[in-house]
Amino acid sequence: MAKNIQAIRGMKDILPEQTPLWQFLEDTVRSVLSRYGYGEIRMPIVELTELFKRSIGEVTDIVEKEMYTFDDRNGDSLTLRPEGTAGCVRAGLEHGLLFNQVQRLWYRGPMFRHERPQKGRYRQFHQIGVESFGLEGPDVDLEQILITHRIWRELGLDGLELQLNTLGTAEERTAYKVLLVDYFRSRIDELDADSRRRLESNPLRILDTKNPDMAAVVSDAPTLMDHLGDASRAHFETLCAGLDAAGVAYVINPRLVRGLDYYARTVFEWVTTRLGAQGTVCAGGRYDGLVKQLGGRPTPAVGFAMGLERLIALLEEGETAKRLPSVDLYLVMMGETAQREGVQLAERLRDELPDLRLIVNCGGGGFKSQFKKADKSNARYALIFGDDELANGEVGIKPLRGEGEQQQVKLSELAGIIAGLTA
Ligand code: ATP
Ligand code: MG
Predict the structure, then answer these.
(1) I want to staple 38 with a disulfide (CB 3.0 to 4.6 A). Which of 33, 228, 231, 316 is the partner?
(2) Is residue 43 assigned to a domain?
């Protein structure tokens, strides 16, 4: 027999038993974003490779080694999107959404990066991304962090830590990079091979190393925070004051750098210690340079993306996951007439109780076999509709999870009683 074909390494199926938690996560985030006036935008999953090279930058991990790139049949080089910001800016420019106006946008969907698969790190993963364009002040940076804070609250997630830093402007960073490279050269013996390579290409990224042997050399490095201009410092201080006023706790982490060149000023991450090395569940910051870099007029922008697999992993441990709704009722029908009438009864219940989750038995079968299916469906109650019930204008309601005895209920009272049971 031929071997079954399996899913691609690092790309996971999300099964029906898992999707209620995904829906809860996505619905909660969508609801918060719409309450802050953010509109959804949907972009293609594939873009020209050039877009990512120009936006993310050639010397980043993503472009150097993580992209799924292939030639289209007409010879164009295409790439499965590794993140959403580039496509969002591309779409914004293409449709004239960015020039001289304010936009608050969000998107969701799969992203693709060829990384080593492990817990919290996949080759197809999902993000919800949020971007605002046209606002340069720290008020919108604050707004986005407040959004994330509210999302965690409404998801029932606690124990997440907000880490905050500023990367200054491109000019401030250029001056700082000279200092940093000088410093690392003076202690070159302590750098690993990866970092020595980055000394030329992307020295800031060395600060982000995960190599514990480099902890000392990194912690002694000069910080950008100490070399900021007045405007960048004021931007950062205003953001911090806003967070203080809102009662959002944060930790300033001068080692927090984003790999991408287009970032400016604010960067932030929400991290947890509960997911091992893959502890960042949300990352974002200001990227005032990107729109121009992609051919638009200079446009300030700030955004973040959250990693849904990591948030799901956190939610799976919590109480919310246990309270998620499944099926309410499974309708068991015995006899030909009851079968016919039962379908009508189910439709009337669906009319009266719009949120009701009701499965009607299909495929006939005896009492025992229908009850087996009812059990397997995970429904909380079986509704029993047989000849006796039909004759008496009644329906039986039997708890399927050990919550008491079967009761007989008048048809006229059925909807009210079900509403009470499933509230
Ligand atoms: P990391 O340092 O973990 O590789 P990153 O800096 O590459 O993260 P971003 O590009 O900022 O990640 O993406 C935002 C978020 O998307 C991350 O904080 C994380 O939650 C999630 N994420 C990124 N890469 C993956 C992946 N391969 N699998 C699952 N989630 C991911
Ligand atoms: Mg990464």
Answers:
(1) 33
(2) yes
Read off the pTM: 0.90
Place of tokens 């580039």: 86
- DSSP secondary structure string for all residues of 175-226: HHHHHHHHHHHHTGGG--HHHHHHHHH-GGGGGG---GGGHHHHHTS--GGG
User: Which-ligand-closest: CA of 208?
Assistant: 1
134-151 confidence digits (pLDDT tens): 999 999 999 999 999 999
- Residue ranges of the binding site for L-histidine: 83-85, 113, 127, 131, 258, 262-263
Find the radius of gyration of the CA atoms of the chain. Answer: 28
Residues 26 and 162 both lie in one domain = yes
Distance 307 CA to ligand 1 centre (A): 6
Residue 294 placed within a domain? yes
Q: How far apart are CA 278 and CA 238, in angstroms?
A: 30
Measured CA angle at 5 (ends 22, 71), to 5 deg: 80
The enclosing domain of 388 has a CATH number of 3.40.50.800
Q: Which of 320, 342, 372 is the last residue of a domain?
A: 320
Residue 53 host element (H or E)? helix 49-55
Q: Whole domain around residue 396: which residue ranges?
A: 326-422
Q: Up-side HSE of residue 138: CA atoms within 13 Å toward CB?
A: 20
Q: Give the pocket of ligand 1 (CB within 6 Å).
A: 83, 113, 115, 120-122, 125, 127, 278, 280-283, 305, 307, 309-310
Domain end residue (candidates: 292, 320, 348):
320
Which has the higher per-residue pLDDT, 361 or 60? 361
The owner of tokens 């960042």 is 280
Tell me the CA end-to-end span of the chain in Å, nearest whole number: 50
Number of separate domains in the chain:
2
Q: Is 374 exposed, middle or buried (0-12, 13-18, 19+ CB in 10 A)?
A: buried
User: Within a domain: residue 203?
Assistant: no
197 vs 260: CA distance, rounded Å: 17
Specify whether 23 is located in the same domain as 92: yes
Does 83 fall in a domain? yes
Residues 265 and 373 grouped into a single domain: no
Q: Is residue 259 over pLDDT 70?
A: no
- Are both 280 and 357 inside the same structural domain? no
Reference 155, options 16, 268, 327, 313; nearest CA is 313
Rounding to the nearest 10 degrees, give the CA dihedral for residues 387, 389, 392, 393: -120
* β-sheet bridge partners, residue 264: 286
